[in-house]
Amino acid sequence: MTDLIEYKDKFTLDGRLRPGPSVTKAKVAKVRELYTAGIYGDRIAEATFMETITTSDALFNAAYFANLQVLPQFDAAPRNWSAIAGIREVPDFKPVVLRGLFGEWEGLQREGTVTGVGFNNPEGVLPVVAEGAPYPYAVLGDTEAAYGQLVKRGFKVGWTWEARINDRGTEFFSQIPGQMLDAALETEEWSVWSALINGTPAGSQLDGGTTYTGAVVLPNATISRDALVQAIYELSQREVNGRKVQVSGGYNLIVPTGTGDAVRFLLNQQLFEVTDGSFQLTASFLQDGVASTTVIESEYVTGTNWYLLPKPGAVKRPVLELGRLRGYTSPELRVHNVTGNYVGGGAVAPFEGSFDNDTIDLRIRYPLAGILWDATYVVWSQGDNIA
Questions:
Q1: Do 262 and 212 share a structural domain?
Q2: Given CB 3.0 to 4.6 Å as the disulfide criterion, which of 116, 122, 189, 385 pairs with 218?
């Protein structure tokens, strides 16, 4: 079981929740007390819980309590995508950009001479300044993501007046919010994997060639030890800002669900080879120091496709990330109903349902995006060519 996160401020979850004017610690604590007792079979407490949340503001305290219950579980939930992507807070819904974080200075002189000696500066290196010469000006450049822009996602679920009569209120608050956050977790997964798969163009496919061992790898080759050797080599020969890609920290190899064990077995095989008339074993491809490659399954990778990319932090730039809106980094659960007034005056209790259709709406909102910064760092293959 994943450990829950410890929060210093347990009422706001360190700022993750913003209580409204009608939500207080005392009211939420009372809701918690009645709810917990009802869950454990106290019928009187359950009835009191239902009666209490029909007051003018207890409903909103119950919704806030639901957030307190499920958000820590959401934060601590295991995520398959976290093995291949980082997290970034973005300021708005405009196209996401990186500004001046990776030595992307524009306007620096890259070639020239100093007292007759030539030099050629690679990107990000301070240029030579000749004696008495002015320092060159440079500006920070922007790097726009190859794929990904923040979007608002969400839906609402209505608890009808009839369901309120038939069902126990504790069941609604114990099931529905958690299931809504399960949908948010699935959305995170889809967003990150979609950025990788839909954002990587055909130009990043495995070209194939002859490896340093002499093995011939076809374009779009099926997964094999030689194909992986070739993919790593091709990635190392690609250039970003005039410099070849250098990976320090290993690779992630993404394969379809159900094929991971077979691929690990294939790459972990130790083969016999003859050297100077004697037999010796080759090293396992996946062991540290050889390739440091982790095989990860994804339900979103289909057929015989496979993808190779650096692990998070293995290159200077981010490659793949989940973007969240700054200040709104968690799914927000919100309750709403407009009940109207009785004829002759007097407000209708919230749990009598809305004026329009006798429902109480619980809504989830979650702005997020899967971001692929640069497909140069991804080598992929359709896996349909077998030598």
A1: yes
A2: 385
Residue 375 phi/psi, 5° resolution? -70, -5
Nearest to 62, CA basis, from 40, 38, 34, 42: 34
In angstroms, the CA 341 to CA 292 distance is 67
Q: Please name the helix (run of DSSP H) or strand (run of DSSP E) that holds residue 209, with its range, or none.
A: strand 209-210
| Same structural domain, 68 and 165 | yes
Is the model's pLDDT at 127 over the cut of 80? no
Rounded Cα distance, 36 and 62, in Å: 12
CA distances 332 to 27, 186, 365, Å, are 20, 15, 5
Q: What pLDDT sits at residue 350?
A: 47
What φ, ψ does residue 254 adopt, rounded to 5°? Answer: -100, 125
| β 359-372/332-336 pair status | antiparallel
Q: Is residue 15 part of a domain?
A: no
Q: Are 189 and 297 in contact (CB under 8 A)?
A: no
Is 243 found in the same domain as 291?
A: yes
Q: Is residue 97 part of a domain?
A: no
Nearest to 9 by CA among 22, 25, 20, 21: 25
The residues with which 153 forms a beta bridge, in sequence order, are 366
Alpha helices in 257-341 (DSSP H): 260-268
Residue 106 pLDDT level (bands cut at 50, 70, 90): low
Same domain, yes or no: 306 and 326: no
Q: What are phi and psi of 125, to 5 degrees?
A: -100, 135
pLDDT digits (tens, 9 = 90+) for 246-275: 999 899 999 999 999 999 988 887 665 556
Rg (CA), the chain: 28
Q: Could you identify the residue written with the tokens 């001479």?
A: 113
Examine the fold and report which residue of 280, 311, 342 is the final residue of a domain before the chain moves on: 311
For residue 59, the enclosing domain spans 25-88+148-197+322-372
The whole-model pTM stands at 0.78
Is residue 296, in this structure, part of any structural domain at all? yes
The structural domain count of the chain equals 3
What would the mean pLDDT of 331-348 be, rounded to a whole number? 60
pLDDT at 118 over 70: no
Q: Among 311, 335, 353, where does a domain finish?
A: 311
User: Is 12 a domain residue?
Assistant: no
Interior/surface letters 264-293, b for 16+ CB within 10 angstroms, e for the rest: bebbeeeeeeeeeeeeeeeebbbeeeebbb
